[in-house]
Amino acid sequence: MTTSEASARSPVMATITTAGPADRLARHLAILFCPPVLPVAAGCAVSWHATWPSPAGLVWGLTAVACGALGVAVIVFGVRRGWWPDVHLSRRDDRRWPLVCATLGAAGVWLLCRHLGAPRELLAPAAMAPVGGAAVALCTCFGKISLHAGAAAGSITLLVVRLNPWCALLYPLVALIAWSRVRLGAHTWLQVCAGTALGTVLTAGVMLAV
């Protein structure tokens, strides 16, 4: 696929090809904080904290990498095969099957960890991967929300609830990530706000219920 063809299919690529300083910053933020990054980091931090000083929590937390890696692998494979125009899945129609595959993979990893005897306090945060994936996949049937904003908001909420309330100081990062998605033309403000709300409410609800 040529650059011009990709630009025609993807509003993100079209913006990047004529990028100014703000657009380049937005692009770097979108890449640096792609959806698997913050959830994996937050999951590892919570797992390690829950079992400190034993390293077992970090070991269990690293299983989240498998969930994130599977989703990324599916997306990258689809882009290389020409199924989707870009790794950010900016178009609603491109999201359904990658989300389903990532959700099923995350559920499989969670069940494996449970079978292997992972502590309950670690299984609860890990459940956010398949639950969140299923929720976003369901939302995609009716509209489009920001995966970047939802993942960031959910990750920071997890840190606030399970690690330290002072982690709430990280919430401005969600706004910055949301701005980057709007700046690149991948989402509207309504869509990033919807993603933020879903990530926050879903994570807080699951964590406070278990």
TrEMBL record:
Family matches, as InterPro entries: PAP2/HPO_sf (IPR036938)
Key word Membrane present: yes
Coiled-coil ranges (or none): none
Keyword Transmembrane: yes
Membrane spanning stretches: 29-51, 57-79, 99-117, 123-142, 163-182, 188-209
Keywords from the UniProt entry: Membrane, Transmembrane, Transmembrane helix
Official protein name in the record: PAP2 superfamily protein
Organism: Streptomyces macrosporus
